[in-house]
């Protein structure tokens, strides 16, 4: 499974997935969306965390508008569902994914970034949802995922008014968890992914698969799901070893950064 506009680089237990279509600002053609799906679906078994970034001056300019042909309602729905299926592989795939952002993170590019588990943005990053001014709507899961990052009110404002957030305001609004100097987002994302790769796999699984669902559940159900997940995670031999190592003074303490 290879695609001319996507590069997969395995560095130890971290996979670096790169959009390599800089001449089109990494706009997501249907083929590229499917390549993202296939890549996350079939990451090598030794991979424990992933990074996604984009070549050139921009992370991603969103949907490839040159492919936005006349579609009837049914075809439009299936196209959107195809994006959903691909980005589900990112969010609920085998490993946590860190997005390394710079330049334009717009439209479907923001939807892709929102499907990742952590976002690192360099200071050139800007966020927008130009769908509002192109006469369309989000279709890549943005209506579900973006309000969870920034709230319904901010997303509504972006789409109604064409508001663009710069890197600093974007970090404050909740798009990104890390704001780093120009040109260093990928390096920081890889460092975070290497750290994530050292976690017990069940902890990473719980954070990817249980936490977002618990957050959606009514509290009485959420508490029960949390208890079940906690019991499963702590019963793993690896968890017991890690706790023993701490109690014997052999594991790192929590330290201020
Ligand atoms: C594209 C695309 C694209 C660039 N589809 N071809 N997304 C948008 O509405 C954003 C549209 N793009 C832009 O606003 C700008 O291109 C950027 C701010 C991202 C970058 O500006 P710049 O000056 O660096 O590049 P450029 O000159 O605008 O573009 C370079 C080339 O990339 C040019 O093609 P060329 O053949 O004339 O060289 C552009 O046409 C091409 N290009 N962006 C196709 N998006 C699941 S639903 C999701 C819905 C959406 O994502 S809607 C939002 C779409």
UniProtKB/TrEMBL annotation:
InterPro entries: ClpP/crotonase-like_dom_sf (IPR029045), Enoyl-CoA_hydra/iso (IPR001753), Enoyl-CoA_hydra_C (IPR014748). Pfam families: ECH_1 (PF00378). It comes from the Bacteria. The keyword Lyase applies. One of its GO terms (molecular function) is lyase activity. GO terms for biological process: fatty acid beta-oxidation. Keywords: Lyase. Belongs to the enoyl-CoA hydratase/isomerase family. NCBIfam families: PRK08150.1. This is Crotonase/enoyl-CoA hydratase family protein. It comes from Ramlibacter albus. The lineage of its organism: Bacteria, Pseudomonadati, Pseudomonadota, Betaproteobacteria, Burkholderiales.
